[in-house]
Amino acid sequence: MSRNAVLGVDIGTSSSKGVLVATDGTVLRSAVREHTVDRPAPGHVEMDAGVWWDETVSLCRELTAGADADVLAVGVSGMGPCVLLTDADDTPLRPAVLYGVDTRAGAQISRLDAELGREEIRRRCGSLLSSQAAGAKIAWIADEEPGLFARARRLYMTSSWLVRKLTGAYVLDHHSASQATPLYDTHAQDWYTPWTELVAPGLPMPPLRWSGEAAGTVTAEAARLTGLPAGIPVITGTVDAWAEALSVGAHRPGDLMLMYGTTMFLVHTVPDLLTDPALWSTVGALPGTRSLAGGMATSGAVTGWLRDLFGDADYAGLTALAEDSGPGANGLLMLPYFAGERTPLMDPQARGVIAGLTLSHTRGDLYRAALEATAFAVRHNIETLERAGGDIRRIVAVGGGTRGGLWTRIVSDVTGRPQQLRTVSLGASYGAALLAARLVGDASADAWNPVAHTVTPDPAATARYEELYGLYRRLHPATADVVHALAARQER
Question: Which SUPFAM superfamilies does the record cross-reference, listed alphabetically (predicted)?
């Protein structure tokens, strides 16, 4: 007897993931498609939107082929905020410009700050302009590629592009829009027309819906390509980190979601609007919710770089070596700013630093230092969230980096805070599937995905890390002039 099910797809930085889930939360099938982003120039990070759709088609076909399940609805999410511009026929005009890892729009940020007022932008939009702001990247395209921009008629982000391809609907979720600073008014929760016309003249903004609302239904053509049933609903979707938070139930005031992935993301749900120049204030994925968020430009990306650099190593072997290295990595200290840094530094010219190297240090020490560096950065973000008025009562961890145990243990030891781990750690694709399940019945994260384990800090390790954290906080100011000069040379 076939089971009722929903399907979730998430387009991430390094891979696309799909999951087929029974309506009671049981994972029936999952699949992954790995990909890479393009870096055509220093600070530019892009991706061909054709890859997003091709991998979605492939995932849907694999997940549904021969499955003894009736798919009732589809959920989508993706990295963001991204900027994909198309012409009137929905032909992409250029590769999509990715989220805060792309730092190209510095000149546009300076210009818009001067024209609109830096604090007025934060007052109206909730966040200052930064490398995360999609509106500044639209301005970059308008400035640097004016002929192309003149042909632009639609704005998509990752999940909304999938919605368009699946249903024909042109919509965007409120959360993604709230990261399109300075185009979205966080108080009115709508596009702010005077600034959309200034920044993106002639480009119609998509109608807005909440992430879990139905955007449309699967068309006959999309059904033919994907193997999905025609006519089933598709959610509006959202940015992957917010879908991940939903997947583990971290959407109540006081919750903080830590997403362990290629980058590290922190989403703190707050009852009322809070803003801070070192953080991002957004509306949440669900109606009536707000978030104060942070994001690091790298985390797992650094461990992946080390694995590739070492050549013959794998993650399990490096984790074992890092375990043997012990707290403090035998006197190594790393800054994880290998692609600049987002929050709380907001410094796209920051760079990675490894301090204390000697000829006796090993691969395990370097790998341990990388894990500890991300943990120090998490603590820096947590302290900034609480300084801004956040009230963190529970931390829930999710993502591929939670597997293996060492990384989450280091983060708890450095921060002195416990972290809940849920039973299912698939992340955003599972959260998108949960939203889809809510369209066709009752579903909750607590029922779908109960707490499996809590990582608790070791007081002795926390005490050892206290001095190292102080050194970590001193290292960036002490080296900033040098690394900024090196960053300028890299961009020539």
Answer: Actin-like ATPase domain (SSF53067)
Provide the angle, in degrees to the nearest 10, between the axes of the packed helices 300-310 and 363-387. Answer: 170
Question: Distance between alpha carbon 19 and the CA centroid of its chain, in Å?
Answer: 18
Measured in whole angstroms, how far is the alpha carbon of residue 123 from the centre of its chain? 24
**Are the folds of 3-240 and 251-426+458-492 the same?**
yes
CA-nearest of 183, 241, 232, 189 to 210 is 189
- The torsion angles phi and psi of 185, rounded to 5 degrees, stand at -90, 110
> Which of the listed CATH numbers 3.90.1150.10, 3.40.30.10, 3.30.420.40, 3.30.70.1530 matches domain 251-426+458-492?
3.30.420.40
* Domain 3-240: top CATH class: alpha beta
DSSP state of 261: S
Asked if pLDDT for residue 492 goes beyond 80, the answer is no
pLDDT in tens, 75-108: 999 999 999 999 999 999 999 999 998 999 999 9
Q: Is 263's pLDDT higher than 90?
A: no
pLDDT per position as a tens digit, 187-230 = 999 999 999 999 999 999 999 999 999 999 999 999 999 999 99
User: Taking phi first (over 0 means left), then psi (-120 to 50 degrees means alpha), and beta for anything else, what does residue 403 get?
Assistant: beta
How do beta strands 184-185 and 190-191 pair? Answer: antiparallel
Domain segments of the chain as ranges: 3-240, 251-426+458-492
Q: Please, which residues have CB within 8 angstroms of residue 126's CB and are 6 or more apart in sequence?
A: 178, 181, 186, 273, 275, 280, 281, 282
